[in-house]
Amino acid sequence: MHLFDRFKVYLYHRNRIKTWSGNLTKIQGWSSEHAQQVRFDVIRGAADFNGKHVVDLGCGYGELFDFLSERDQLAKYTGVDQQRQFLKSAKQRLSDKLDICRFVRADLSKFTHDNVDIVVACGSLNYKSRDSEYLTSMVAHMYNMAGEAVIFNLLDSATFPKQNLVTGYNKQGVYLYCKTLCESVELIDGYADDDFTIVMRKS
């Protein structure tokens, strides 16, 4: 993502840290804890995470690790974010799990890792970019990194109102693009008014 776009995202979350002190859900930009949890639930139901190495692009405070660990024992979890304070808090909060949890500060579009089973992006691809091909390049990047599956959610342009920082996408258009990369693509919707999830499974 372009440096100026990343800076806008940084300022947005820095301001929310001041405004919503202690409220991790609001700081990360979720409308409610339910909105976050319902998306986590769809992700957890889309794949078998047991014994897998998961890369979480835009990990925030690493809460997806907690959610997945309620059911599965992850082999490794790598959380990636550009917000230094998110990562610092995640490391402190999960200090007893750092044998399998790793947190990396990086540009999501440039981060890569070997031997990854599942790549997840929950809410982190909705930020606007001046690069018109940002989303498609990110999907291809995630697909190349993942050994088994890619799972990401996006705002639905049919129902999500236009805003300055985040944007919605045409779900059928995204689905059809993913089909150019992967034979097995699933579109999941109906769990929220303004959101959909794509699952790309490698054979």
From TrEMBL:
Q: Which UniProt keywords apply?
A: Methyltransferase, Transferase
Q: Which residues form a coiled coil?
A: none
Q: Does the keyword Transferase apply?
A: yes
- Output the GO biological process annotations, alphabetical, semicolon-separated: methylation
* Protein origin, superkingdom: Bacteria
Q: Which InterPro entries match?
A: Methyltransf_25 (IPR041698), SAM-dependent_MTases_sf (IPR029063)
For molecular function, the Gene Ontology terms on record are: methyltransferase activity
Per UniProt, residues of the Methyltransferase domain are: 54-137
- Is this entry keyworded DNA damage? no
Protein name per Swiss-Prot or TrEMBL: Class I SAM-dependent methyltransferase
